[in-house]
Amino acid sequence: MTRTAKDFFAPLAVGAPAPLREIPARPSRAIHFFDPGNEKMAAKVPDMVGTVDVLLGNLEDAVKAENKEKSRQGLVDIGRATANLGGTVGPTQLWTRVNSLDSPWGLDDLVTLVTEIGDKLDVVMVPKVQGAEDIHYVDRLLAQLEAKAGLDRPILVHAILETARGVANIEEICAASPRMQGLSLGPADLAADRRMKTTRVGGGHPGYLVRQDPERDDLGVPQYDGPRTTYQQDLWHYTIARMVDACAMHGIYPYYGPFGDIKDTVACEDQFRNAFLLGCVGAWSLHPAQIAIANKVFSPSVEDVAHARRVIAAMGDGTGAVMIDGKMEDDASVKQCQVMVALADELAAIDPELKKQYDAIPDQHSGTEA
Ligand SMILES: CCC(=O)SCCNC(=O)CCNC(=O)[C@H](O)C(C)(C)COP(=O)(O)OP(=O)(O)OC[C@H]1O[C@@H](n2cnc3c(N)ncnc32)[C@H](O)[C@@H]1OP(=O)(O)O
Ligand SMILES: O=CC(=O)O
Ligand SMILES: [Mg+2]
């Protein structure tokens, strides 16, 4: 049975910090993955602080089995030595992706990281989550470790949606703990688990398409061999939309995951933008080149912010209907605009360049009451 409303927010261990009642909307446009055991990548981390919203020390897939301990220790060293990273000190959060709960490393990852750098760790990403039982396990263990380490704020939990069972159990995963911060789509493992027939890491597929109807001749006979335009579809639309609804319903945050074609920055931007438009707040960055793409896509454009502010100003108390540039705006569309402006304000607070751009938008108050 799940916990009752009475004890849902009670700490799960004596001496553990109280769970948060609300998950803070901290900017997390790019969750940048690095292998803490890779000297070249690790050396880049100090200079990345302040340029990216989240730095994530990845211990799971993409780290060779023989390097697991080295990567774990590398993250401890980075957490201890890097200024202004993680905790409440600066704009760049420190996350980790631990090994899966059924692996030989998952337990030691959690025990070591919380004990050694728990005060720096903001979020633990848990891969291959199948259901609420996985989150319950991590929830209790984190509480015990936090109490032992004397931490004064709870570490949050982020689940990767990368199994068919995980997708089927998505609502119970989101609701499993007040630590739940968000979900990411894991298209590579999810494709394998679902037996999808794509070998790509995220992104589209030229075979997943719809085709224009055939032209007809003068007698109305379809010309099946004639030229017909095809339109590539988004393989991930269903899962992302499902994830966005589940997260919104539970007050947590949805993210697009990895885009593996590092050189195809154009398609990466498109995939990230689809996710942004559907409601995601960020995406993973696997290579330094993807950080700027995520920062750009997951920040509202100056045009959108200008329009949103204009609608809000014209709508006064937010009720009724007005015409702006030939379009009707009302109580519902003003709420859409408030979402855009709230995000812009959050980002401007940590991104001076964006702040400059948003501050330069001239005040516009136009519109006519219907
Ligand atoms: C698919 C399911 C998943 O689980 S996705 C998440 C797991 N995968 C990952 O975390 C992959 C992380 N990224 C990487 O391993 C590398 O970026 C890959 C994709 C292998 C490309 O590396 P490489 O061939 O070295 O790229 P490059 O020559 O263009 O690198 C230029 C310099 O940048 C460095 N670099 C590379 N990636 C990162 C990174 N993620 N974070 C920090 N630094 C990175 C490289 O080491 C290289 O450094 P240097 O200039 O030679 O000193
Ligand atoms: O972990 C991510 C994935 O796509 O699998
Ligand atoms: Mg995966």
From TrEMBL:
Query: What organism does the UniProt record list as the source?
Result: Nocardioides potassii
Q: Which UniProt keywords apply?
A: Lyase, Magnesium, Metal-binding
Q: Name one GO molecular function term.
A: lyase activity
- Cofactor(s) the protein requires to work: Mg(2+)
Q: Mind giving the lineage of the organism this protein is from?
A: Bacteria, Bacillati, Actinomycetota, Actinomycetes, Propionibacteriales
InterPro entries noted in UniProt: Aldolase/citrate-lyase_domain, Citrate_lyase_beta/mcl1/mcl2, Pyrv/PenolPyrv_kinase-like_dom, Pyrv_kinase-like_dom_sf
Indicate the segments forming the HpcH/HpaI aldolase/citrate lyase domain, all copies: 33-200
Listed name of the protein:
CoA ester lyase
Q: According to its UniProt record, what is one Pfam family this protein matches?
A: HpcH_HpaI
Could you tell me which PANTHER family the record lists for this protein? CITRATE LYASE SUBUNIT BETA, LYASE BETA SUBUNIT, PUTATIVE (AFU_ORTHOLOGUE AFUA_4G13030)-RELATED
